[in-house]
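Lecture 7, part B: from sequences to assemblies.

Below are the input chains for today's worked example.
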Amino acid sequence: MSHTVGIRQAQKQKTRQAFLDAALVLLEEQSLSSLGLREVTRAVGVAPTAFYRHFRSTADLGVALVDEALGSLHPMVRTTVSTAGDSEERITRAIELIAGHVDAHPAHVRFIARERHGGVQPVREAIRAQLVRFAEEVKAELAKDPQAEGWSEDDLLMLAHLYVDQMLITASLFLEALESPEDERERVSRLAARQLRLISVGRRHWLD
Amino acid sequence: MSHTVGIRQAQKQKTRQAFLDAALVLLEEQSLSSLGLREVTRAVGVAPTAFYRHFRSTADLGVALVDEALGSLHPMVRTTVSTAGDSEERITRAIELIAGHVDAHPAHVRFIARERHGGVQPVREAIRAQLVRFAEEVKAELAKDPQAEGWSEDDLLMLAHLYVDQMLITASLFLEALESPEDERERVSRLAARQLRLISVGRRHWLD
DNA sequence: TCATCCAGTTAACAACTGTTCTCTGTTATT
DNA sequence: AATAACAGAGAACAGTTGTTAACTGGATGA
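Predicted structure of the full complex, as structure tokens:
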């Protein structure tokens, strides 16, 4: 259908991305509900009114940020769960993946953790919807595992949510330890590994 | 030392409490980092400058709110963990306690969930410090249990943090379901119960 | 009783906010 | 080549913000 991007639409998307980037930087030290429209345009280097060409409000911008942040997370979730190998190896890989993602996109992770329970309803709901999708994907991956034999659908979804929540908690811990020395990050890794291990043990003996 | 409260100090604490109450109401629809000083004084019905007699800034007010909110939570944590009875009975009791607390102090719970990763550093740190204390208390209770035999200190603390985080997640779920019909709240109860059950199973087989 | 304290008031400040309307200059369409 | 579309600029608006200084009047303590 649409073939040529058009130098016009290209510029627009470039500016739009500049808004998203600038907002993400500003949101490192405040919440979305206190992010001002003028503040963002000032950071981008553009007139305040230009904002309306891209977003209806800062809440709208927030929803766009949710898509960007959790879109980039989607591949990670899939590989995290479906990695082959024995249980212990999976856990190590999963935690490495989480740590790597936090290193690569700290502002995204911070934004999600902050706005998940934040003061802007549409953003909260957008995050919630994405996390539900994640849980369903994780559930689908779990169902493929021979260990899932005899598990009810509800129990699988319950476990999936547990994993998703645990993933966010771990990511948030890595985030707090971003500027800390290496041994602190090691400590977080080991804590997260043992928590995942305990959940794995519970999973293995669930049907007893 | 101090015997008479003094009609003066009494009035002051009354006004201070009015600030905390008003702020808690305003924070139901926004985050602390967007809470204005004038907004609060207007809600209390007092001059803007009166604010400075009680707090240095809204961040300062936030820290006071953390103490109030988590102070009221302390008794709950203790009884939640130390309740007698078999594992299944404990879980049911614990979830009832959480649900009851959310019903009784929804604004407190919302505030903690929101500001735990919120945009105001001193408040984040105050919450973090309190949650660490909770985890240590839970650890102490867990250590009393005969089931804790053979557990390392680190593993006990790891499990304690898992319980504390799970408690917050559950509270937050109940909060979201506050206005929902009874069967939705039932669904949350059962989900939370099964997650706690899985952790219990993992705990029981940890030393295998 | 009298001097001191101090919670809360009043007035004013410069700076900032979101939103509207009008205009410009380049790109896209015919 | 003429027309329309449209991203962004500019100016102005009524309100809001945090903070300062000087003041008031009832409680406090000698």
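Note for the exam: Chain A has two domains: 7-56, 69-204. Keep this in mind when comparing with the next example.
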